Hints:
The complex is a heterodimer.
Chain A: H1 6-14, E1 35-38, H2 42-54, E2 60-63, H3 72-75, E3 79-80, H4 87-101, H5 103-107, E4 118-122, H6 125-140, E5 146-148, H7 150-156, E6 172-176, E7 180-181, H8 184-197, E8 201-203, E9 208-214, E10 217-223, E11 226-229, E12 232-235, H9 241-247, E13 255-266, E14 274-277, E15 282-286, E16 291-298, H10 310-323, E17 332-342, E18 349-352, E19 358-362, H11 372-385, H12 399-402, H13 409-412
Parallel strand pairs in A: 1-2, 1-12, 2-8, 4-14, 12-19
Antiparallel strand pairs in A: 3-7, 4-6, 5-6, 9-10, 10-11, 13-16, 13-17, 14-15, 15-16, 18-19
Helix pairs in contact in A: 2-8, 2-11, 4-11
Chain B: E1 3-6, E2 11-14, E3 19-23, H1 37-45, E4 53-59, E5 67-73, E6 79-84, H2 96-102
Antiparallel strand pairs in B: 1-2, 3-4, 4-5, 5-6
Amino acid sequence: MQRYSGFGLVKHALGHHENWERQWRNPEPKKRYDVIIVGGGGHGLATAYYLAKEFGVKNVAVVEKGWLGGGNTARNTTIVRSNYLWDEAGRLYNHSLDLWKGLSQDLNYNVMFSQRGVLNLGHTLQDMRDIQRRVHANRLNGIDSEVVTPGQIKEIEPQLDISSRARYPIMGASWQKSAGVARHDAVAWGYARGADALGVDLLQNTEVTGFKIRDGKILGVHTNRGDIEANTVGCVAAGNSGVLANMAGIKLPLESHPLQALVSEPLKPILNTVTMSNHVHGYISQSDKGDLVIGAGIDGYVGYGQRGSYPTIEHTLQAIVEMFPMFSRVRMNRQWGGIVDTCPDACPILSKTKVKGLYFNCGWGTGGFKATPGSGHVFAASLAKGEMHPIAAPFSIDRFHTGALIDEHGAAGVAH
Amino acid sequence: MFYIFCPYCKEHREEEEFHARGQAHLMRPSDPDNTSDEEWGDYLFFRNNPRGIHHEMWVHSVGCRKFFNITRNTATYEILETYPMGEQPTITAATPDVRHEQGVQVADGGWQTVGARSENKALNEEASS
Ligand SMILES: Cc1cc2nc3c(=O)[nH]c(=O)nc-3n(C[C@H](O)[C@H](O)[C@H](O)COP(=O)(O)OP(=O)(O)OC[C@H]3O[C@@H](n4cnc5c(N)ncnc54)[C@H](O)[C@@H]3O)c2cc1C
Ligand SMILES: [Zn+2]
């Protein structure tokens, strides 16, 4: 693998950038692997990378029906934070945040992780009580988090309307300073390049169409490019997890919904941080390119079309204008949708299944981008050892029968 | 944007007047005292999530405020029928012409993917070779 560096950039500039090495191979599928990962999004690629790098499992294939990172990984609004309420979720997301901090160096790939902080606004007394409770829980778990007043908010994000004239006046916020955003595509590409260099086969345009299961054990997958064998298969397919589970005769407590995002025309730097509001229901940040990156809630119905409805766009922009009246005449450039796999308790599923050797990592719904490194890491550990990693264990699918739910609807908020 | 026929108002109205309320025809366990954790969990949390024909409950929230059901294709978003509460759908994933026209493969063979290989029950088992 050619290492990237400032020196390399200068060197390749002299050659008009025509001699860069390809970032990964495009191999033919082998007959057999030790582990097959279904789904080449950020989580699947991270799983493969950590399997090869940290757990010594190098005979791995990532089977992706389209191109790498073309699912929700390419469609999300890139918010990274870890201020979740419950211990289990806090541990999972904070493990991820710790990995984010060194990710560009680890991958030798600039994932543009920018810790510009996240504000979660409160507009009612109940909002503020929930925020205080969550911030206290965060601090007990060693997660940096504080409650800020409207005055402090104004210093952090001057353009936010904190006046009492607003329809939903801002009473305060939670503030996680170490949170921020990252470049979503770079995360997928960085993990892909790293995994490929360690010998992982990245099989694009390869769709899993069924599973080989005998005596309750997984033996491999059927694909449009032939059958591939493995005794360990991990499905990391976001919105399509239910479709895959169905092929294996497993039911998941998931529903797949469209979730949309929008970006505006590029503007001069105007926003310092990420601002989210559960109550008026929208969130916004500004990309390094200058466009406002905007999102809100899911469409209420189950849908697999990677687009969303117009009423949802309208609601989203109403929320943004409520928070930032000055943006009322900004024009939107693009809008798109992804299919998110929402889970009843707004927490993911990292779990074994009744089919031995078949694992699922899904249910990240509207907020899994932030978890990409941590999810990949603990899932890889679980696949390598055949036992769920302690951080992953509470997220077993069994919790929907035992009742040990991890209710993160409050922290998941406007979803992300 | 959906244009939805309310079976009570007997008119097509815009999506904005309605709210989606999840899977239709869910039956609460009839004997709660003798219902296992497994059955309660299934009832509360596990839903059909098909890529294809789905039966879902909607409410005409700013119209007549009544609940009714829709049969809809979740991949093409086409609404195939709407029908009042208490009635059964006339179109299901098993309806032969729906299967062909919509290219939907149904759960009976462990299949739901649109555009995948043709349905085959044996696919989930190891072929004896
Ligand atoms: C609009 C939007 C905004 C979001 N904003 C945020 C945010 O701000 N912060 C945050 O933390 N999260 C956010 N999310 C959620 C986040 O994007 C996801 O949770 C995360 O990216 C999921 O990653 P993944 O790798 O599991 O899934 P994906 O990237 O979707 O990858 C799954 C892959 O599986 C492949 N696949 C599916 N079926 C098959 C098959 N049969 N065979 C082979 N391959 C298959 C797909 O092609 C896809 O590439 C947002 C999501 C959306 C849609
Ligand atoms: Zn009506």
